[in-house]
Amino acid sequence: MTDGTAFVLPAKRVRGDTLRERLTETVYERVLPARYLRRGPDGDVVETPEGLFERVAAAVADAERAMVPTPRDGSGGSTSR
Question: Quick check: is 10 in a domain?
Answer without folding.
Answer: no
